[in-house]
């Protein structure tokens, strides 16, 4: 594998193609739940090129739903336990780790971020917005995309590219490109799923898509997340 090659692979976790609900990744870490088999861990290592860190949040395996972050920091849902927070901090020294005290603990569905910016649920209060900005170290913007307020579920963005709900308008796509500073394309995952984050996890090195993802969808994901334009 060439050093700069962007790799895309299919993955199933716990018999489920909705792998994005279980994993949270950036260029510096990938959080995986307890119980992931060694074969799957090896695929994660190979494609994302970071060592998996096994954790739970709120005693749940749904890390992709309960965690949002970038290379600077990690936001956890309000159900996170003290021992879980401590374990993540010890495993990732130098990365900010904080609980977002929102009534909606599905932080992964509320925040989409790379190392330049964060797009967030448009109904956060000012205290939550400040925490997001401080922890992730980026500009924070509130906005719905494709009519969906839970922007973290319809957009996956890295430091190299992004993929968004197919109903995003040209105006919204341009806004996202300007905000995050990377190419953004529309696409789907898992045979037509518009909520792309549910079946996808990625960083600047590679992407893992749910096992029901079709060849054309994979090609689109590769183009979008490797920084290619159509």
Q: Overview of this structure, please?
A:
The chain has 230 residues and is an alpha/beta fold. It has a single domain, classed as L-arginine/glycine Amidinotransferase, Chain A. The protein is built from 8 helices and 15 strands. The protein has a 3-stranded mixed beta sheet with strand order 1-15-14. It is globular. The model has no long low-confidence stretch (mean pLDDT 96).
Q: How would you briefly describe this protein structure?
A:
This protein has helices at 38-48, 63-66, 82-91, 107-110, 126-136, 151-154, 170-180, 215-225; strands at residues 7-11, 24-25, 30-32, 52-54, 67-69, 73-76, 96-99, 111-113, 117-120, 139-142, 155-157, 162-164, 184-186, 200-202, 206-210.
Please state the CA-atom Rg, rounded to the nearest Å. Answer: 16 Å
Number of domains: 1
The ordered H/E elements are EEEHEHEEHEHEEHEHEEHEEEH
Shape label: globular
Strand portion: 15-25%
Q: With helices defined by DSSP (H or I, 4 residues minimum), what is the helix count?
A: 8
CATH architecture: 5-stranded Propeller
CATH superfamily: L-arginine/glycine Amidinotransferase, Chain A
Contiguous low-pLDDT stretches (5 residues minimum) are none
Mean pLDDT: 96
Query: Helices and strands: which structural class?
Result: alpha/beta
List the helices and strands and how they pair.
Elements: E1 7-11, E2 24-25, E3 30-32, H1 38-48, E4 52-54, H2 63-66, E5 67-69, E6 73-76, H3 82-91, E7 96-99, H4 107-110, E8 111-113, E9 117-120, H5 126-136, E10 139-142, H6 151-154, E11 155-157, E12 162-164, H7 170-180, E13 184-186, E14 200-202, E15 206-210, H8 215-225
Parallel strand pairs: 1-15, 3-4, 6-7, 9-10, 12-13
Antiparallel strand pairs: 2-3, 5-6, 8-9, 11-12, 14-15
């Amino acid at each position: 594998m060439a050093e700069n090659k962007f790799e895309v692979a299919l993955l199933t976790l716990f018999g489920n193609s909705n792998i994005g609900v279980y994993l949270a990744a950036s260029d510096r870490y990938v959080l995986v739940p307890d119980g992931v088999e060694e074969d799957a861990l090896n695929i994660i290592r190979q494609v994302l090129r970071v060592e998996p860190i096994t954790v739970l949040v709120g005693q749940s395996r749904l890390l992709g739903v309960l965690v949002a972050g970038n290379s600077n920091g990690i936001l956890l849902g309000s159900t996170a336990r003290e021992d879980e927070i401590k374990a993540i901090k010890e495993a990732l020294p130098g990365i900010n780790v904080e609980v977002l005290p929102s009534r909606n603990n599905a932080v992964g569905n509320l925040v989409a971020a790379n190392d330049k910016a964060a797009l967030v649920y448009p109904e956060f209060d000012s205290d939550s917005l400040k925490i997001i900005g401080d922890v992730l170290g980026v500009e924070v913007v509130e906005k719905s995309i494709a009519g969906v307020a839970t922007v973290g579920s319809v957009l996956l963005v890295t430091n190299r590219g992004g993929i968004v709900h197919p109903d995003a308008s040209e105006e919204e796509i341009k806004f996202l490109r300007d905000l995050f500073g990377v190419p953004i394309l529309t696409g789907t995952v898992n045979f037509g799923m518009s909520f792309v984050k549910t079946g996808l996890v990625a960083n600047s090195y590679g992407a893992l898509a749910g096992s029901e993802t079709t060849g054309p969808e994979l090609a689109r994901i590769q183009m979008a997340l490797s920084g290619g334009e159509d």
